[in-house]
Specification:
The protein has 71 residues and is mostly beta strands. It is 0% helix and 73% strand. It is built from no helices and six strands. The strands form two sheets. The chain has a four-stranded antiparallel β-sheet with strand order 3-2-5-6, with no helix packed on it. The mean pLDDT is 95.
Length: 71
């Protein structure tokens, strides 16, 4: 069970990635050095129970949150 995240960074930067469950508990946190341009990050979600989760990505003061369901 893998989740592929696709990003685009206009320049090299540090990206903070947090995966939380619906209760707000952080299930995974990672800091990634992002290259300039498009790149993919694959997360192993095998250890997560079925349910709804949120991916939060922060880079250069900008934040994006996306929801996904694991079945």
């Amino acid at each position: 069970n893998e989740l592929t995240l696709q990003f685009f960074s206009p320049k090299e930067a540090d990206l903070q990635l947090n995966l939380t469950d619906v209760s707000g508990k952080i299930r995974h946190a990672e800091s990634i050095h992002a290259p300039a341009g498009p790149f993919d990050k694959i997360l192993d979600i095998n250890n997560l129970e079925s349910g709804i989760y949120f991916i939060e990505a922060s880079i250069d003061g900008k934040r994006s949150v996306h929801r996904f369901a694991k079945r």
